[in-house]
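Here is the promised in-class demo. Please do not try to memorize the tokens; focus on the logic of going from shape to residues.
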């Protein structure tokens, strides 16, 4: 999974750039099915606020938990600054030097993508405490309020994600209805959802008994592959995403997420926006 994520995520983050070439910055992001954290290395530079990783594997999360702003999660030690965005000023670089040993993720949770909640992620006490420390550090030179208490978060706690990324994760799901609906419940209006799937042709979207028995959906659109992973058709993904609340498909690309037995695996990458807005925080 990690190897494929390393290939897919640069394309995903590039798709989060504005038409002027500047990357959009998000208030909060969910790395859904984060694995060992390779995706987080690319996502961190897009997120001003909390970056949360969720995975069902505790062992994977333990590895992701060892990653810091300056080490681990696929970072090349010889080029550890190459991933930083050029838009940051010198003060940002100084702050980065001081905090380079901070964890890459603000929270890592062993949760089910279909049932996780905001209370378990953005409102987790550890995430809130880390967010408060960072906010107070930025405001040390200010005369105003340093950011609320447990009952009044003072804008520190986000109520929803405005970016969710699932890199090479939904290949382990057959039907996508439950997981995409839960992503929508966790997301703010105008938020972005970016994910990749393995691809099956739209002509597999049939309603006959064979499609129903092979896919288990009753309407086709996805199938179990010999690899044990699932492939999904574009029309099925777009339909289910729209039903979940992601009204706008603003980016689509056919990709090769991995090589298998010397052959290219067919995949595709989607970028949706929920409701109105442009899917960026900044």
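The designed amino acids, position by position:
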């Amino acid at each position: 999974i990690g190897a494929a994520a390393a290939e897919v995520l640069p394309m995903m983050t590039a798709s989060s750039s504005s038409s002027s070439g500047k990357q959009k910055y998000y208030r909060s992001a969910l790395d859904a099915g984060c694995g060992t954290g390779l995706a987080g290395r690319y996502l961190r530079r897009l997120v001003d606020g909390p970056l949360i990783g969720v995975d069902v594997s505790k062992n994977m999360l333990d590895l992701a938990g060892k990653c810091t702003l300056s080490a681990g999660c696929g970072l090349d030690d010889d080029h550890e600054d190459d991933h930083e965005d050029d838009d940051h000023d010198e003060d940002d670089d100084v702050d980065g030097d001081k905090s380079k040993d901070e964890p890459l993720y603000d929270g890592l949770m062993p949760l089910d993508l279909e049932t996780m909640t905001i209370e378990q992620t953005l409102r987790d006490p550890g995430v809130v405490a880390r967010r408060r420390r960072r906010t107070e550090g930025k405001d040390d030179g200010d005369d105003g309020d340093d950011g609320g208490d447990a009952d009044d978060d003072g804008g520190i706690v986000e109520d929803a994600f405005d970016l969710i990324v699932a890199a090479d994760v939904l290949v382990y799901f057959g039907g996508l209805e439950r997981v995409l609906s839960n992503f929508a419940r966790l997301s703010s209006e105008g938020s972005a959802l970016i994910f990749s799937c393995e691809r099956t042709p739209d002509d597999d979207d049939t309603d006959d008994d064979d499609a129903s028995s092979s896919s288990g959906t009753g309407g086709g659109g996805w199938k179990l592959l010999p690899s044990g992973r699932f492939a999904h058709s574009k029309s099925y993904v777009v339909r289910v995403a729209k039903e979940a609340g992601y009204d706008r498909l603003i980016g689509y690309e056919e990709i090769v997420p991995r090589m298998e037995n010397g052959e290219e695996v067919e995949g595709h990458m989607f970028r949706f926006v929920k409701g109105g807005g442009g899917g960026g925080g900044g």
